[in-house]
Design a protein that fits this description.
Length: about 150
Amino acid sequence: MTLQQLAAACLADPSRNAAYRVARLPEADCRAVELCCKSLGRLPRIDRASLLAALGAVLAFPDYYGQNWDAAWDCLTELDWPAGQLLVVHLPLDGAGTLVEEDLAVFVELLQDACQHWGERGRALCLLIEGPARGLDCLAPLPQLAQDRDA
């Protein structure tokens, strides 16, 4: 499944909201009209503090956001984005020097819970993790999207 196919599937059936992996996400793929892509950018370190800070910045969490897992959940359940669009939270892993797998696992679980939350409300939200799984157990169960040229 490609990103455009995923968007169509999630918009038609938000129960398909989830976390997915992709080897590479071309910038042009994020410009599709049915997508609202928000990239956390290439973080030099993947840990609790950097993930929460980047998530809050890219999704424009309010000033009172406390940069902890509970506060992130509260803000994720209060998001607003254009109807008829798939909100894609994009996390590139390439270039990260230090990666704390336990923190990444909590982040993935948090976003999967948010995907389910919004799916139950008829809205389309997905986490898209770009880059190799690098032997990370927390990413192993995530489905891999195909590149457009592979589809």
